[in-house]
Write a structure and sequence with these properties.
The protein has 294 residues and is α+β, with helices and mostly antiparallel strands. 19% of the residues lie in helices and 31% in strands. Helix 1 crosses helix 2. The radius of gyration is 18 Å and the shape is globular.
């Protein structure tokens, strides 16, 4: 006997830099874009919100359909890592945990014109429970490249930490996936090396689209992904991915296309086993190398 849990999600780099113009209008266009997807996303994962005012405007625009999920107390100058996470109010998934894990390796903070070093980049770990499954979503935005400064070593160390974090969660979660802007092209050796740990769910989508995942960098192949960690074997996963359905106006929202993934978690259940005998994974109590922003 099989049972299926559905988890539609949307990840999007919103390019909300500190001096972004027309943010309210962009939020309204974003809401319109979200409601074009069927089924509607249960989870929204955004990056590059570099002011709390942007987060608040986004919250106001998405109400009452989506509720924001916060990491710890609001103490930083901007949301941790520039991330924002929202859950649909009618979602059947229950939030077990949301933690922000800062990357140990980053660009120098004194290069303020680049921004990455000041951003405190890391991973928002969202853990969701259903009666049959636990899913760990690792939402991230890796170190960017700046001309001759490619920051390849920094990005490689961030990939390594992300994979270690996924391996740790795989001990208790049925499915572990990573989503976001990885600033890594699929043709790069660094990305190719990740195939040993991650299954790229966007590969077929890239072949269909034949365009970059950003709207203004024509020389960039693809840098936004939905990845499935190979060592988490609690359920088989079917994935249906699509970009923002109205591609032409997307630049009016961000310089990235939104990436929608409809995940279906298929479980094999022993019909003769009593419900009380079915083991439900228990999440770990802490993340060894991580902590909440202070």
């Amino acid at each position: 006997m099989t049972r299926t849990d559905e988890l539609p999600l949307l990840t999007w780099n919103l390019h909300g830099l500190p001096f972004t113009r027309r943010w309210r209008l962009r939020c309204q266009r974003l809401r319109e874009a979200i409601f074009r997807f069927t089924p509607q996303p249960q989870v929204l994962l955004f990056s590059e919100l570099w002011r709390w005012r942007y987060w608040e405007e986004l919250q106001s625009t998405l109400e009452p359909d989506y509720m924001p999920l916060l990491v710890g107390a609001r103490q930083a100058f901007f949301p941790p890592g520039g991330h924002a996470v929202f859950l649909h109010r009618t979602s059947p998934w229950c939030v077990r945990d949301l933690t922000f894990v800062r990357y140990a390796s980053s660009a120098p903070r004194w290069r303020v014109w680049e921004g990455d070093g000041l951003a405190g980049k890391g991973v928002s770990v969202l853990v969701l429970d259903s009666p049959r499954a636990r899913v760990a979503i690792l939402h991230t935005h890796l170190q960017a490249q700046y001309g001759a400064r490619t920051y390849g070593q920094v990005r490689a160390l961030q990939w390594e930490q992300l994979t270690e974090l996924a391996r740790w969660w795989a001990s208790s979660a049925s499915v572990v996936c990573a989503v976001g802007d990885f600033n890594t092209r699929p043709s790069e050796p660094l990305f190719i090396a990740q195939a040993a740990h991650w299954l790229d769910l966007t590969a077929d989508l890239r072949q269909r689209c034949q365009r970059p995942s950003t709207t203004i960098h024509s020389d960039v192949e693809w840098i936004d992904y939905v990845l499935l960690f190979r060592d988490a074997r609690g359920a088989s996963v079917r994935a249906h991915l699509m970009p923002h359905p109205a591609c032409a106006p997307c630049g009016a929202i961000s310089d990235h296309y939104g990436l929608y993934a409809h995940l279906e978690l298929v479980h094999t259940i022993d019909a003769d086993a009593p419900a009380s005998g079915r083991q439900q994974a228990r999440g770990p109590e802490r993340i060894p190398f991580a902590g909440r922003p202070r």
